[in-house]
Amino acid sequence: MQTSETQVADLVRKILEQMSIAPSTPQGDGLYPTVDAAVEAAIVAQRQLLELSLEKRGEIIANIRCRVLEANKRVAAMAVEETHLGRVEDKIRENILCVEKTPGIEDIRPVALSGDHGLMLLEYAPVGVIGALTPITNPTGTFINNTIGMVAAGNAVVFNCHPSAKETSREMIRLLHGAIVEAGGPAGLIGMAFEPNLDTANALVAHPKVNMLVATGGKGVVDVVLRSGKKAIGAGAGNPPCLVDETANIRRAAEAITNGASVNNNIFCICEKEVIVVQEVEDALIKFMQETGKVYLLSPEEAERVTKLVVVDGHINGSYIGRNVQVILKDAGITVNDACRLAIFRAEADHPLVWLEQMMPVLPIVRVKNVKEGIAFGVKVEKGNRHTAIMHSTNIDNLTAFARAVQTTIFVKNAPCYAGIGLGGEGHTSFTIAGPTGEGLTSARTFTRQRRCTLAESFRII
Ligand code: NAD
What does each C-alpha distance from 77 to 82, 85, 139, 176 come to in angstroms? Predict the structure, then answer.
């Protein structure tokens, strides 16, 4: 077996760590023996970043975009291999989306206001060092998206990834840190403890020199950062309902739902997690979904077998999260062809997969009498996450009624869920969608402090 340079470096680092000695490469690679070491390096690097011009900051962001694209296939494959979540081809799309549609320094353009009383200038200043906790589901996308946004705003960032995505996350740190340094940015501007775990997460949350926390994950981690006493941004779990009424273009809706619910095997927090359909169009919707050639309709008996497999003691069985539909169905004794991407079934309103965030390509479809009942049910199953909802309809009143009732951060009309994060839809992308704390689709400006400078009675040119 051949040992790569990276593996040797990791081995050396582990030995040095056990001896409490930090490796002494001149610029480092962004990986540190402790959270404290990463934070100290980040503080120095952030000061250095502010001494560079904005133009240079723009060049750093441009180089990040460039180097990530070059490494895209490699890191996408690595993420799927390590976490067993999602699909390589969809991770590649995810990374391209983050590279192309995460706003850079243009997002922190200042605002100037002049009037009878002079001039007011509003600037978006950095917060300093950000602690970012990242989910297992998107180790590549979240790192790219957070790094571009946070650095564009003039911050340094210390990450703590999910331990089960640590190899990919380390590689992302090396890649992004390398791109920053290569473009003339300061070493240490992004970093992570080499061995990320719950202890390092807690150390980061409690670190007195970390100025802001950003949690992307489930309710647990969002609660942790909100209790920290620091400025915190929480991007939490969702259970997006997708409502289809009788006025929808049913074939288009069927295609959109198939593509949205199966993207990356449903691990995106925004994916359609249950379909609610008005009874008169239920059969047509299912038929058109089957006609895509990507969908398998489970019989009631098959659906029961699959449910027993993927829901255990009222919780989602983690070993099926993000897996290909073939893998899940095979364990339930069902064989489907390679083109299949999604299993669907007719579900009762109280079915556990309607209420749990399954994050796998098994989608319940619940029938309702009319759109009014559908809206009320959609609000219930969204469970106040204020995350994402999707609706297929050509009736503006119905669309407006659901959007108003469900109060989600993202509301997608007549498109797959991912249009709401800019993939085939307008607007920038974000992989940290802050529903609980209300910042919405985060971007560079989210990671700033607003500062006002006023010059009274002068400085107007008119
Ligand atoms: P998770 O909550 O288990 O973990 C997320 C991160 O928080 C990890 O780094 C983990 O190590 C850390 N963490 C978890 N509990 C912690 C605690 N008590 N103290 C300190 N750190 C803790 O989530 P996950 O399984 O990695 O990711 C999937 C979840 O993330 C889903 O619920 C999904 O909806 C959500 N998600 C949300 C968004 C969004 O933008 N809103 C984006 C991606 C994923």
Answer: 9, 11, 12, 17
